[in-house]
Amino acid sequence: MCSAPVPREPLRRVAVTGGTHGNELSGVYLARHWLRAPGELQRPSFSALPVLANPAAADLCRRYVDQDLNRSFTNTFLSSRATPDELYEMTRARELNQLLGPKASSQAFDFLLDLHNTTANVGTCLIAKEACNTFTMHLFRHLQLQIPELSYNVFLYWRNVGETFSLDSVTKNSMTLEMGPQPQGVLRADLFSRMRALVGAALDFIELFNQGTAFPAFEMEVYRNLGGVDFPRTEDGHLAGMVHPQLQDRDFQPLRPGAPIFQMFTGEDVLYEGDSTVYPLFINEAAYYEKHVAFLKSEKLTVSVPSLPPLVL
Amino acid sequence: MCSAPVPREPLRRVAVTGGTHGNELSGVYLARHWLRAPGELQRPSFSALPVLANPAAADLCRRYVDQDLNRSFTNTFLSSRATPDELYEMTRARELNQLLGPKASSQAFDFLLDLHNTTANVGTCLIAKEACNTFTMHLFRHLQLQIPELSYNVFLYWRNVGETFSLDSVTKNSMTLEMGPQPQGVLRADLFSRMRALVGAALDFIELFNQGTAFPAFEMEVYRNLGGVDFPRTEDGHLAGMVHPQLQDRDFQPLRPGAPIFQMFTGEDVLYEGDSTVYPLFINEAAYYEKHVAFLKSEKLTVSVPSLPPLVL
Predict the structure, then answer these.
(1) More confident residue, A84 or B21
(2) Is A284 on the interface with B (CB under 8 A)?
(3) Residue B246 forms contact with A (CB below 8 Å)
(4) Would you state the pLDDT for residue A162?
(5) CB of A85 within 8 A of CB of A67?
(6) How far apart are the C-alpha atoms of B170 and B164, rounded to whole Å?
(7) Chain B contact present for A282, CB below 8 A
(8) Which residue of A48, A151, B183, B201 pairs with A119 in a disulfide if CB–CB is 3.0 to 4.6 A?
(9) How far away is chain B from the Cα of A135, in angstroms, using its nearest Cα?
(10) CA dihedral sign of residues B184, B187, B191, B194
């Protein structure tokens, strides 16, 4: 059963979050700019709320202070009692849950657009939980049609294990925008402008929907998460090799059994031993070294998205 | 007067340092690899010592723990008394000064090769203090001739203000190798292999010198440091704009008066107001945001380097 039903009312409570990871600077600086000059986020039927999600991490220009905020929105964390010495991101997750949720409640915000960067060559990566998030899939389709010059990849991250943990799980509907490659702690003008244009087009889509526009069914190519592959490591946990030059920067390109994936420091190649072609992404993302992920594998699918019925205004 | 006289004896005490900045992973992982397998650093007349310069920062994958190690080698810091609660890098700078120096003493190591990465598009950047570092300039020339397929830029950083502060000032002669672009916290196989080959060729040059080889005079194009330019900032110190797309990635390309250098978040361009052409480098280097440097300016010169006389063996 899909967790994100199609909206039956106009979306009035919309948030745009940047700096969920404090060293992903496109979102950090868009959020800071919009907090000073919010006019760009206004539409006739709503005004999107800009939020700097992890301000303490952004001030330090680090991904997080104590733990990854974007893994902190489990019910376990959110329902735990505050303690004086708790991790910063636990406090901050509870604050954001109060502001934008509560998670899975009727009071939660209607839509969240969470802005991220990666060091991987993913281009413009539109991330949803599942293909059955019909509203979000229509939003992705709208972006593809409105700004066709970008090379989009739609990624579905949910693997049906455990409970949801990311900021985008707090609101009724959501999308995550990943743009790369951009180093941590660096703001590139080209990515900043592209992300700004995409947020504008996303808000335009919500406005169209709020005004009663219907959107027809379509088919879309997507990549579905199959889990991560770790680096080769030494017995002390350090790398023993690195992403192979023939895999580096080839996010969303087919990886066939027998192709090289790692180059050991001693010189030899490690080959991909799976039994079918996969599509790697987040290849060599800096933040995933500590998560023991050199890249994610995905499968490529075509999904049918039903029409989005017009609101009865 | 030049601080680095031409060696009159074979160079026996040679060190290769990586991880002076703990999130510049080419040097971190080369040092870790060579500490396990040092054979690659051996030559007939010497064995270079691999050193992981800032192991605590490397373990955290941060540039530094408390302060920038590569700004900690002033006489003031090195001669201060150790205290129990002092900054980590002050302790570590003293340890490295004991291991590789003491700075400006006859017991100091003969040569240091310090390995760095940058998020800027500097290619293979060979850094010396001044053009009068004759031995180092000959080493650069050797690298250019031995591995001609790399696009080298020779940068002279010293501006004759204050005292020297970097790790490479501790030994009698030295060079710093900067390779980019590479994000902080990411290890790219292409840069790793190139850095490894350059270190090998540098050790080969020292071996040739130790064996009594003479090297003729030559002329070389170099870039000399003219100081930094900060980002436009808001009153609270955050960025108000970013490196202009027409400047981004154009390290060592001419920047003419009137050309755009920044793009403000409000849309307008900031133009370069200098009165002569300069050559920017370290454009949009992540670690320099906190140092208030969006890029360094340099001037392009041709310097004459005298012959390097053979050792009398």
Answers:
(1) B21
(2) yes
(3) no
(4) 84
(5) no
(6) 9
(7) no
(8) B183
(9) 31
(10) positive
Per-residue burial over B262-288, b if 16 or more Cβ lie within 10 Å, else e, is bbebeeeeeebebeeebbbbbbbbbbb
What type of residue is B200? G
A262 in a domain, yes or no?
no
CA–CA distances in Å: residue B50 to residues A253, B14, B41, B155, B274: 38, 9, 8, 24, 43
Per-residue pLDDT, A44: 98
Name which of A36, A189, A287 is nearest B242 (Cβ-Cβ). Answer: A189
Q: In which domain, by residue range, is A164 found?
A: 14-221
Sign of dihedral through CA atoms A52, A55, A60, A64?
negative
For residue A1, name the pLDDT band (cuts at 50, 70, 90).
Answer: low
Query: B180, B191, B305, B303: which is closest to B252 by C-alpha?
Result: B180
Domain harbouring A34, CATH code: 3.40.630.10
- Indicate whether B7 pLDDT > 80: yes
> How many angstroms away from the CA of B55 is the closest CA of chain A?
12
Dump pLDDT digits (tens) for B22-46.
999 999 999 999 999 999 999 999 9
- Mean pLDDT taken over chain B: 96
Q: Do A183 and B188 touch (CB under 8 A)?
A: no
Interface test with A, best of B60, B186, B239, B282 (most A CBs within 10 A): B186
Q: What is the CA radius of gyration of chain B?
A: 20
Residue B95 lies in a domain: yes
* Residue that wins the pLDDT comparison between B161 and A92: A92
Distances in Å between the Cα of A279 and the Cα atoms of A12, B124, B300 are: 37, 32, 46
Question: Using the beta-carbon criterion (under 8 Å), do A183 and B187 form an inter-chain contact?
Answer: no
Determine the 3-state secondary structure of B49 from DSSP: strand
Flag whether pLDDT at B1 surpasses 70.
no
Instruction: Give domain status of residue B299, yes or no.
Output: no
Model confidence pLDDT, tens digit, residues A20-77: 999 999 999 999 999 999 999 999 999 999 999 999 999 999 999 999 999 999 998 8
User: Is B66 within a domain?
Assistant: yes
- Confidence at A3, pLDDT banded by 50, 70, 90: low
Overall domain count for chain A: 1
Which residues, other chains included, contact A52 with Cβ-Cβ below 8 Å and sequence gap of 6+? A17, A18, A19, A28, A31, A32, A35, A58
